[in-house]
Description:
48% helix; elongated; three-stranded antiparallel beta sheet; alpha+beta; single chain; PH-domain like; 3 helices
Amino acid sequence: MEIEFASGATAHEDFVRGIGISLALLAATLLVAAFGRGFGARATGRSFRSIVIAILAISVVAGALVCERTYARFTSLTSGNNVLTLHFPAPFERTLDIPKSDVKEVLFGLPDKGGQVCHLRITTRSADVYVSADTMLEAAACKEVRERVQASIQEES
């Protein structure tokens, strides 16, 4: 059984879009800070440096969140031979084999709470958690995918 949640190209597009938005916000904030300081704002050199450092820190956190939402999530899952194989997208493309006997639970989540987007969450007995890329499925269809994965684990483990 193979289930695809998103293509590698989709994950890459989401990554580029997220980084682009983060960089645009960073540039806009720096411009506002620079023009505000230049037009007589009463910012001292030290407070301006603090603002720049805070903006850079926020940009790093935003970049890390973008990576977590794209490249750190598996885009497809293959079940067979007592192993679940998770496929992660490029540029860090890799596969991860999880023995089915090590899978503690398979859950599904609806991050948008409207029921149009879902993901799977696989937790192992060693408390490692792997989350799939978001996919456009309603809650009932997502639950069905979870049940298929869970059934494949139980039939072969």
